[in-house]
Write a structure and sequence with these properties.
CATH architecture of the largest domain: 3-Layer(aba) Sandwich
Order of helices and strands: EHHEEHEHEEEHEHEHEEHH
Helix content: 25-40%
Number of helices: 9
Pathway: Amino-acid biosynthesis; L-histidine biosynthesis; L-histidine from 5-phospho-alpha-D-ribose 1-diphosphate: step 1/9
Largest sheet: 6 strands, mixed
Enzyme class: transferase
CATH class of the largest domain: Alpha Beta
CATH superfamily of the largest domain: Periplasmic binding protein-like II
Number of strands: 11
Radius of gyration: 19 Å
Shape: elongated
EC number: 2.4.2.17
Subunit structure: Heteromultimer composed of HisG and HisZ subunits.
Keywords: Amino-acid biosynthesis, ATP-binding, Cytoplasm, Glycosyltransferase, Histidine biosynthesis, Nucleotide-binding, Transferase
Distance between the termini: 27 Å
Length: 206
């Protein structure tokens, strides 16, 4: 029986394939998959989904392991084991806005795709803010007066710069993570342990 790994489609998928290649896994099934959402390799089955769905497939045991952004784990808090960080998918959460925008006299309004992470961050600082949840293009919010600032993931900062926004405060650094279904770790330990061990990176990885 082969392990099943759920992969986040897009950038993390490509970075994980490169990661596998560096560890001498056969990645040809990935390169020739076209629009397929399932692939079988010599070592495991892989399914491809959006990040938040990867966490769900792992939580419900459809997949034994998952490769997902740490932002999903912090925001959704799925019932999975967070096994280890990968050396890719690194970026940071930051508060950003227009450089000339002063702190409002009223309660600050923050636009974000990540209301839980944002609320916790400000609460830990002893601050109360109003959260406006958006699903995309949060950079528009301060430009159109919907919010004072935004909280979002920043990688290169180019999108902020192109829209006249600047990072005002860095919150935390995140990366891609390897997650596991709790029951799979118990029932399939013999087949999962070698795979998990092969994903460990010596420097700074537990």
């Amino acid at each position: 029986m082969k392990p099943v790994i759920a992969l986040t489609k897009g950038r993390l998928e490509k970075q994980f394939i490169k990661f596998l290649q560096e560890r001498n896994y056969d990645v040809n099934p990935f390169l020739d998959k076209g629009r397929k959402l399932q692939v079988e390799t010599d070592d495991f089955f892989a399914i491809f989904a959006k990040g938040i769905d990867v966490a769900t497939y792992v939580e419900y045991g459809i997949a034994d392991l998952g490769v997902v952004g740490e932002d999903i784990l912090l925001e959704v808090q799925p019932d999975v084991f967070d096994l280890l960080p990968f050396p890719f998918g690194k970026c940071r959460f930051a508060i950003a806005g227009e450089p000339s925008n002063l702190s409002p006299l009223r309660k600050q309004r923050i636009a974000t795709k990540y209301p839980n992470i944002t609320t916790k961050y400000f609460r830990d600082q002893g601050k109360s803010v109003d959260i406006v949840k958006l699903e995309g293009s949060v950079e528009l919010a301060p430009l159109l007066g919907l919010a004072d600032d935004i909280v979002d993931i920043v990688e290169t900062g180019n999108t902020l710069k192109e829209n006249g926004l600047v990072v005002k405060e860095e919150m935390l650094t995140i990366s891609a993570r390897l997650i596991a279904n709790r029951n799979s770790l118990k029932l399939k330990r013999a087949i999962l342990t070698p795979l998990i061990d092969s994903f460990r990176v010596e420097e700074g990885i537990i």
